[in-house]
Amino acid sequence: MTRQEASTFALDLSRPFADELRRVLLDQADKARVPLAAEGPTEPVVHAARKASKRARAVAYLLRPTIGGTAWRVVDVAFRDAARLLGPLRDADVARHTLGPDAPPRPDLPDIEARAIGAYQAAYDAAMALDLQNVGQDALVAGLAASWRNARQASRVLDPTDPETFHDWRKVVKRLFYQVQLISSLDEPVLGSLVKQLDVLQEALGDHHDTLVAAELTAPTEALLTRRRELEGQTVPLGRWLFGAGPRRFARLLTQTLAEPSVAQGV
Questions:
Q1: pLDDT category, 105, cuts 50, 70, 90?
Q2: pTM
Q3: Are 201 and 242 in contact (CB under 8 A)?
Q4: How far apart are CA 257 and CA 140, in angstroms?
């Protein structure tokens, strides 16, 4: 993450909490929409837009335990649908990096630029309309604890014969990674270290997913299967170690950090 990205994808808790959440959501919509309009759906632009969607969805998910209902889901779905429009392009880019000249060409998607820009504008509008009047810092603790619980539970049902279990784990780990990244500046020794560990895990799970995407686009190869097994051998023990603590202990850490930034002790 660049320095500029770090400055925008971070909560400034000296400002009203609800305002900061909305600012982050709007920033992510703009980080996708503006480059698409200026440069079109190039590989770097598509990658950045989909990353912005994942960050925004992680922020929206933080609100789930607090505001409930469908309000948070409207924002989540808007960013999800925008990213899905670019999914075939991203899959083709991944396949090219994984398979080289054997990869299929990028698909020709009519009007994809205008459609994606419109979708990210809809996500921006949904974030603007979100009612955050009664959302406070307790939402942050509740949302992060729920994400920690989900990632921990997913790590306990992994099945090497069922790649979908790793895919499900990847999604919740990436969500948690972005959520902790959002507040990591509050306590660099603890939360900054946790972000680095989650980053290693989510990157390895992302590589695992890329082998699945490549296998779907072309015939599975022994090299892809070998790489997948290697990644499973890395991620499973790392996840068991990382998620050894339960969500209540994690919530206590967060509460202490918010009360006294840079003082909290380890998970």
A1: confident
A2: 0.85
A3: yes
A4: 12
Residues near 14 by beta carbon (within 8 Å), at least 6 away in sequence? none
Inter-residue contact 25 to 52 (CB < 8 Å)? no
pLDDT digits (tens, 9 = 90+) for 140-169: 888 999 999 999 999 999 998 898 999 999
Q: Counting beta carbons within 10 angstroms of the beta carbon of residue 213, is it exposed (0 to 12), middle (13 to 18) or buried (19 or more)?
A: middle
Residue 53 pLDDT: 97
Q: Which of 17, 33, 128 lies closest to 82, judged by CA?
A: 33
Q: Is-contact 236 158, C-beta < 8 A?
A: yes
Query: Across the chain, what does the average pLDDT equal?
Result: 88
Q: What single letter denotes the amino acid at residue 112?
A: I
| 33 within 8 A of 121, measured Cβ to Cβ | yes
Q: Is 110 helix (H, G, I), strand (E, B) or coil?
A: coil
With a CB cutoff of 8 Å and minimum separation 6, the contacts of 233 are none
Of 205, 219, 214, residue with least CA distance to 174? 205
The identity of residue 30, as a single letter, is D
The pLDDT tens digits of the residues spanning 41-96 come to: 999 999 999 999 999 999 999 888 777 778 889 999 999 999 999 999 988 887 78
Q: Say if CB 75 and CB 123 are below 8 A apart.
A: yes
